[in-house]
Amino acid sequence: MQKPYVTIHTHTSLDGKINAMDLPEFRSASRQYQELSLDPDKQIFNIQGFLNGRITTDDNMTHYRKPEVNENAPLVPEGDFIAEGDASMYYVSIDPSGKLGWQQNYVTYGNRESHIIEVLTEQASNAYKDFLRRLGISYFIAGEETLDKALVLHKLVTLFGMERVMIGGGGTLNWTYLQNGFVDEVSIVMAPIADGDPDMQTLFMAREPISTIQPISFSLLDVRQLEDSTVWLRYKVNNS
Ligand SMILES: NC(=O)c1ccc[n+]([C@@H]2O[C@H](COP(=O)([O-])OP(=O)(O)OC[C@H]3O[C@@H](n4cnc5c(N)ncnc54)[C@H](OP(=O)(O)O)[C@@H]3O)[C@@H](O)[C@H]2O)c1
């Protein structure tokens, strides 16, 4: 199996939260996070794709819309579908059973247009694949009933030529890739904010049966002070 260099890149509060807080320091950290990884004029990550969990995409991009599927669509060809093989950036959407209600084949985020790749399992329906084909959205299959995480990375290399990717969240996707030893680096843009909410999303969230609670340690690669009291931390994962 091949794999690209994988960085989990995220912006957090001091208390490890990843959801928005209505504070100028949050907005500054969010901007700097996007500039480091995506902005064509400022980025330094040199990634070709960024992976996002289904809930992150529904929260930020598709807003829980139902996909406009045709249940009577003719059978689509078996296997993967590549609508665009040479985009400069891909939004890799982890959507195992095919739920997301896309309306177009790209997202605009971080001052960048990215072609969407839907990552499905065999659980996704023919009607959903037909829906993606009609929108010109690339998709590939990774796993029968559950997501084959290694195969996802392998196909990003072999089908789309990716050498470096970023996992952009949320906490569930981050932890499942981290726990399974696929992550080369963790990059945290930490804003000087906190809210003490015990129930809010954090950077890493174990979720049975996808992943479990397990202690993992890290070694510091670099630490830099950014604008507005934001700190950028980079760690190597000790089990990778
Ligand atoms: N500050 C930041 O940098 C940042 C970045 C990203 C996200 N966020 C926030 O984080 C929140 C969402 O995080 P989340 O942890 O709830 O969800 P998530 O990681 O975005 O998505 C989880 C979903 O993705 C699919 N999935 C992910 N990994 C899988 C695996 N290994 N096997 C099978 N399916 C897998 C499943 O979809 P199904 O349920 O369809 O099976 C799962 O329920 C959002 O509110 C978002 O705004 C913040």
From TrEMBL:
Domain of life: Bacteria
Record-annotated Bacterial bifunctional deaminase-reductase C-terminal domain positions: 4-209
Top EC class of this enzyme: oxidoreductase
GO biological process: riboflavin biosynthetic process
Assigned EC number: 1.1.1.193
One matching Pfam family: RibD_C
Alphabetical UniProt keywords: NADP, Oxidoreductase
Entry keyword annotation includes Chaperone: no
InterPro entries: DHFR-like_dom_sf, RibDG_C, Riboflavin_Biosynth_HTPR
Metabolic or biological pathway, per its Swiss-Prot or TrEMBL entry: Cofactor biosynthesis; riboflavin biosynthesis
Single annotated GO MF: 5-amino-6-(5-phosphoribosylamino)uracil reductase activity
Full protein name: Deaminase/reductase
Taxonomic source organism: Tetragenococcus muriaticus 3MR10-3
